[in-house]
Amino acid sequence: MKHPQANRDRHAHPLRFFGVGARLSTWILILFVVTMVVFVGLDLRHEARFAESLGAGMKEQATLLTSTLRLHAVHVGVTALTFGLAIHFLVRRLITRRIEAIVLAVRHFRRGTWSVRIPARTRDEIEWLTEAFRQLGPDLEERLSTFVEADRKSLVALLGSRYERRLAPPARRIIAAAREGRKTGGTDRTLREIEEHAMCVLGELGKLGRPEHPISNDIVSLESRTDVDSTESDGKLLFGAQGATS
Predict the structure, then answer these.
(1) What are phi and psi of 204, to 5 degrees?
(2) DSSP 132-185
(3) Do 51 and 62 meet the contact criterion of CB atoms below 8 Å apart?
(4) 3-state secondary structure 45-88
(5) Which of 108, 159, 156, 150 is nearest to 133 (CA)?
(6) In terms of Cα–Cα distance, which of 172, 177, 178, 167 is closest to 201?
(7) Using an 8 Å Cβ cutoff, are 136 and 211 in contact?
(8) Cα dihedral sign, 155-160-163-166
(9) Residues 6 or more apart from 60 whose CB is under 8 A from it?
(10) 49-63, 165-179, 196-210: which is most confident
(11) d(CA 118, CA 131)
């Protein structure tokens, strides 16, 4: 069963055109346009009353003044639109894109990719957050490798203790039978005893593939990630040390 957070992340889109920069610039643009419309409306109302007070002879000048004010209103609207787009571009360039890079790096971290690097541009609050994420990847990778190495050594030590506990008694019996054969000069009986002890060793080796206690999934996954060659070399060193002590 998949986690619901994974489904949300699969359908989640990065910050696109309608991100924080677009919302901020839109609200600034709306506020600016509403303010200018209110001021222009008040000016037009004032000029209309002034034209009525002057009489019919001044209506042409009042009409010209009204047209001029409307042209200024259009100019203010275009200026407000340009101002809003400029704010949107700056906010997207300085904030939105960098947050997108951080979100993308976090998603790579969740997939297990720790080597994602976020480019640095300026020295500000977003850069502090970027620097923190950039240092987080190598730290997590180093700690994870240390944890895996420690678990690998624990697993090798566990296998070594099981080998020693299971194989030490049959090995001692084989050595004792060989020494007894050299002393008594017997052949058939000694060979039969050595054969029996060797079969016992083979039986113990078969039992080693069936653990006494269930192994957790963490150890199983760790064993699949561990290098097989290094494990075999550790086992050879362990058997060599055991043969020397015997």
Answers:
(1) -65, -35
(2) HHHHHHHHHHHHHHHHHHHHHHHHHHHHHHHHHHHHHHHHHHHHHHHHHHHHH-
(3) yes
(4) HHHHHHHHHHCHHHHHHHHHHHHHHHHHHHHHHHHHHHHHHHHH
(5) 108
(6) 167
(7) no
(8) negative
(9) none
(10) 165-179
(11) 8
Under the banding of pLDDT at 50, 70 and 90, the label for residue 227 is very low
From 164, 129, 161, select the one nearest 245 (Cα to Cα). Answer: 164
Q: What is the pTM of this model?
A: 0.38
CA–CA distance from 125 to each of 21, 98, 128, 164 (Å)?
A: 16, 11, 5, 59
Alpha-carbon separation of residue 19 from 44, 96, 126 (angstroms): 37, 7, 16
How far is residue 106's CA from residue 64's CA, in Å, rounded to a whole number?
61
Q: Which has the closest alpha carbon to 167: 209, 211, 200, 192?
A: 200
